[in-house]
């Protein structure tokens, strides 16, 4: 370890210790989500199951609740539910990463864990350089930096060239990178390697102003190419889309294209872009495949540059959290996100309210309240239901069977006004809602549509009420680790 690396790691731990009490005394600390011990957390990185253990790294700025020279923080888990916070994996100590060990991924090869990440470098004038770097580990805990393996191509792209995601196919290694063309269009490029150190640029897979898309943003971040149900699915986070009705209402988007990748020419033929999540805070997701063959996803429950300075947790020296882990399934070319089955381990006391006749008058039930819980609402009649769920007078989940729209409304933490996100949903059979002290994740119809958001209700208000039309059954579990 270099001296600079030791200094940085030491300074980061000192920051954790200095703020620990203030951070931990925050009511909005979540009860069953991964958070930074202090400072700012953003993207999930290096998600992998290695020797049976799940590893999730994260973009971390220990020194403030804003962005900056990122570290890789590190969590491990045997079951995707109980996570241990590990020692810092990467600190931005070397010339090729001095302004941040930016996002990237992990693979296993010859018994080693290999991390690919972007070294972010800026000079005094703010000119940027980027390097795709490699770090290797025998035990998944200590990482040996090997330095850059890919430089910015000589022409075609700006230095917004980052977030390598690596996978193996038919004995070869492939990497997608999020890029910006010189004309400032968002792109995804594909590389290939036989040995994981020498990489060849195969070409551009797709992007803004390519054959299959019109204008589609000025930068694409965090690409991930997965194969599900015989199709290739490109998950990516484009920046620069204008809102279109209920679509693209957040500052930046995260979504996917379903198609087919030609591994020789790099051409990806694909359909339209679909947002993965309809809520307020969801960005830069990353997936891995585990030993059960499941395709698992974590997202960052945050939105860069959109009112980040208004989150009330900042007073307590920390900001942002990860989503819950979700299993992906491709059903009729649509990505479903299903909370991983292991999350049922969080369930404590169960309460059921059967056959509730919803009406315009809001009803609440003594036992169906709290700040860390799972709700399962299903139709108990054969007919459709319309529902409005009021959560802590701070958020509302609304399905209207007449206009076929599902919405999440909340009181904005930036200005105190109600704000809404909404999507179409042809019919509603089930709502599964995970509430934590300052988050909500809503899964409709077994993951057909998902809404993820931060909410900051009053601590004393743990009431939930229901109104609408139709008959429903409500199950509630208190959740705890
Ligand atoms: C996405 C992102 C990535 C980058 C990282 C820096 O949120 O901007 O493109 O690698 O965050 O923290």
TrEMBL record:
User: Which segments constitute the Glycosyl hydrolase family 32 N-terminal domain?
Assistant: 33-339
Matching entries from Pfam families are given as:
Glyco_hydro_32C, Glyco_hydro_32N
Q: Which GO terms describe its biological process?
A: sucrose metabolic process
Instruction: Give the highest taxon in the source lineage.
Output: Bacteria
* EC id: 3.2.1.26
Catalytic activity, per the record?
Answer: Hydrolysis of terminal non-reducing beta-D-fructofuranoside residues in beta-D-fructofuranosides
Q: Which CDD domains match?
A: GH32_ScrB-like
Pathway listed: Glycan biosynthesis; sucrose metabolism
Name residues in a coiled coil.
none
Primary residence: cytoplasm
Which Gene3D superfamilies is this protein grouped with?
Answer: Exo-inulinase, domain 1, Glycosyl hydrolase domain, family 43
Q: What are the annotated GO cellular component locations?
A: cytoplasm
The segment(s) forming the Glycosyl hydrolase family 32 C-terminal domain are: 342-476
Tell me which UniProt keywords the record has, alphabetically: Carbohydrate metabolism, Cytoplasm, Glycosidase, Hydrolase
Describe its function.
Answer: Enables the bacterium to metabolize sucrose as a sole carbon source.
Name-wise, this protein is Sucrose-6-phosphate hydrolase
Q: Which organism is it from?
A: Bacillus taeanensis
Q: What is the lineage of its organism?
A: Bacteria, Bacillati, Bacillota, Bacilli, Bacillales
């Amino acid at each position: 370890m270099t001296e600079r690396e030791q200094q940085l790691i030491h300074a980061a731990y000192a920051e954790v210790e200095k703020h620990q009490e203030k951070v931990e005394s925050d009511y909005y600390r979540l009860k069953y989500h991964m958070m930074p011990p202090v400072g700012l957390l953003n993207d999930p990185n290096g998600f992998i199951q290695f020797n049976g253990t799940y590893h999730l790294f994260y973009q971390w700025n220990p020194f403030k609740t804003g962005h900056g020279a990122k570290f890789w923080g590190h969590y491990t888990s045997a079951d995707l539910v109980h996570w241990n916070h590990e020692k810092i994996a990467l600190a931005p100590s070397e010339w090729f990463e001095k302004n941040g060990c930016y996002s990237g991924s992990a693979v296993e090869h010859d018994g080693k864990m290999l991390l690919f990440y972007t070294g972010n470098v800026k000079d005094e004038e703010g000119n940027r350089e980027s390097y795709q770097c490699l770090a290797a580990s025998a035990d998944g805990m200590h990482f040996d930096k090997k330095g850059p393996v890919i430089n910015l191509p000589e022409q075609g792209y700006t230095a917004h060239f980052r977030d390598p995601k690596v996978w193996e196919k038919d004995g070869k290694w492939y990497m997608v990178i999020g890029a910006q063309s010189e004309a400032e269009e968002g792109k995804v490029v594909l590389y290939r390697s036989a040995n994981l150190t020498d990489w060849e640029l195969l070409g551009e897979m797709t992007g803004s102003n390519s054959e299959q898309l019109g204008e589609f943003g000025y930068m694409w971040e965090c690409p991930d190419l997965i194969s599900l149900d015989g199709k290739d699915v490109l998950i990516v986070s484009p920046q620069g889309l204008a809102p279109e009705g209920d679509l693209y209402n957040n500052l930046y988007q995260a979504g996917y294209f379903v198609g087919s990748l030609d591994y020789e020419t790099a051409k990806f033929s694909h359909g339209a872009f679909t947002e993965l999540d309809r809520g307020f805070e969801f960005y830069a997701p990353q997936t891995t495949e585990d030993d059960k063959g499941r395709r698992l996803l974590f997202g960052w429950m945050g939105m860069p540059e959109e009112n980040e300075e208004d989150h009330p947790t900042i007073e307590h020296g920390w900001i942002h959290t990860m989503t819950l882990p979700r299993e992906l399934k491709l059903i009729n070319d649509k990505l479903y996100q299903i909370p991983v089955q292991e999350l049922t381990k969080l369930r404590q006391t169960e309460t059921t309210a059967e056959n509730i006749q919803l009406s315009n008058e809001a009803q609440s039930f003594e036992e169906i309240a709290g700040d860390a819980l799972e709700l399962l609402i299903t139709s108990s009649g054969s007919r459709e239901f319309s529902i409005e769920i009021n959560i802590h007078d701070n958020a509302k989940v609304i399905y209207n069977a007449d206009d076929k729209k599902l919405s999440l409304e909340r009181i904005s933490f930036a200005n105190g006004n109600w704000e809404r996100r909404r999507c179409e949903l042809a019919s509603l059979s089930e709502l599964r809602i995970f509430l934590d002290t300052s988050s909500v994740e809503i899964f409709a119809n077994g993951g057909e549509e998902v809404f993820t958001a931060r909410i900051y209700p009053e601590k004393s208000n743990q009431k939930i009420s229901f109104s609408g039309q139709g008959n429903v059954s409500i199950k509630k579990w208190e959740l705890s680790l």
